[in-house]
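Hi V.,

You were right to ask for the full record rather than a summary. Here it is.
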Amino acid sequence: MARILVAGDQLVVRLVWWERAAARRSGVRVPLAAVRRVTVEPDWWRALRGTQQRGITVPGAVCLGVRGHQAGEDFVAVRPGRPVVCVELRASAPFRLLAVSSRSAAEADATARRLRGAAPEIDTSTPWRQPLPVPGESE
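Predicted structure:
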């Protein structure tokens, strides 16, 4: 199962061997300075947005890989029935959102707390994820 780790000044999404094969990538690394907001989504399906571009989706089992939408791309490693740690990223990062399932709500909360403490410039104005921008509107 995918995990979110902090390695130095990098946020790392580490994938197990079969997830690497399905997602066609070894993992994801982004600078902690690119982290904008960290939230926990108890409903796994709310973390998914856009359409599958690369990776695999097995309904009722897993959604893994890159999903595209009007604001860019998200990387997801989500399993149904599990809470999801959602990491919103700044525009300079390769993805707009990283969404990774956790084994339990307690593990998801602990991961989110650890990321909030490690990232230098977290936006704490709201505890919720922000909606995607509407095409034609400015941020």
